[in-house]
TrEMBL record:
One of its GO terms (cellular component) is cytoplasm. PANTHER family: LYSOPHOSPHOLIPASE-LIKE PROTEIN 1, LYSOPHOSPHOLIPASE-RELATED. This is Alpha beta superfamily hydrolase. The keyword Methyltransferase does not apply.
Length: 155
C-alpha cells in the first residue's frame, strides 16, 4: 500500500467489525505511524477473555475447536492466553470511533466501554437494542456515525 501513489501514506482509516474490529485496533496499536484513524463496529475485544474462560491454558485447547459453529485450528488460540485486547489493542492515540449495540450478547458492550476509556481519543456511539451485527435502522445509524466521523477527519 505504501508504494501506491493514490494512498495517503500515514492517513489510512482502518475499519473493522467484530473480530475484524479487534484486529484493526491491534494493528493500529502496533503500527500507529501508518494509521490515521480507526472505525470499529461492535469490536470483539472479548476474544481473549472468552478464550481464557473456555480453556485454562493453550495446552487445553483441542486440535480442532469450534467457535460459533465454525471449526478453527488450535493455532487460532495461540497468543490469546498472553494478552488482554482491551489493553493491548487500545494503545493507538489517533481518532477512534466505536459503534456498539447495547443488546449485544456476543460481545457485551462493557468491552467497548472499557476500550473507549483506554484509548486516548475515542468516541463510543451506543445503539439501543442493537445486537451483534447491525441491520436495518441500526445499520443505517452506524453508517451515519461513520460518515460523520470521516467528515470530521477531513476538516
Amino acid at each position: 500500500m505504501r508504494k501506491r501513489n493514490n494512498v495517503q501514506k500515514n492517513g489510512i482509516l482502518l475499519v473493522g467489525a467484530s473480530q475484524g474490529g479487534a484486529v484493526s485496533a491491534l494493528t493500529a496499536s502496533r503500527h500507529p505511524r501508518h494509521i490515521g484513524a480507526l472505525a470499529l463496529m461492535y469490536p470483539a475485544f472479548s476474544i481473549t477473555a472468552d478464550a481464557q474462560a473456555r480453556y485454562s491454558s493453550y495446552s487445553q485447547v483441542p486440535n480442532r475447536p469450534d467457535i460459533f459453529g465454525i471449526t478453527v485450528g488450535k493455532a487460532y488460540y495461540r497468543g490469546l492466553f498472553d494478552m488482554d485486547l482491551t489493553h493491548d489493542a487500545t494503545k493507538f492515540n489517533g481518532p477512534v470511533l466505536i459503534v456498539h449495540g447495547q443488546a449485544d450478547d456476543t460481545v457485551p458492550i462493557r468491552y467497548s466501554r472499557q476500550a473507549q476509556h483506554n484509548f486516548r481519543n475515542a468516541t463510543l456511539k451506543e445503539i439501543p437494542n442493537a445486537r451483534h451485527g447491525f441491520s436495518g435502522a441500526d445499520l443505517n445509524r452506524s453508517i451515519k456515525y461513520m460518515d460523520d466521523f470521516v467528515d470530521n477527519l477531513k476538516s
